[in-house]
Amino acid sequence: MIHVQGLRKEFGPNTVLDGINLDVAPGEVVAVVGPSGTGKSTLLRCLNYLEAPTAGTIEIDGLALTAGQETRKQIYAMRQKSTMIFQNFCLFQNKNVLENITLAMEVVQHIPKERAVDQAREILRQIGLLDKQDSYPSTLSGGQQQRVAIGRAMALHTKVMLFDEPTSALDPCLVGEVLSVIQQISQEHNTTMLIVTHEMQFAHDIANRILFLEGGSIVESGAPDEFFYSPKTERAKQFLQYYSMKRYQ
Ligand SMILES: Nc1ncnc2c1ncn2[C@@H]1O[C@H](COP(=O)(O)OP(=O)(O)OP(=O)(O)O)[C@@H](O)[C@H]1O
Ligand SMILES: [Mg+2]
Question: What superfamily in CATH does domain 2-247 come from?
Answer without folding.
Answer: P-loop containing nucleotide triphosphate hydrolases (3.40.50.300)
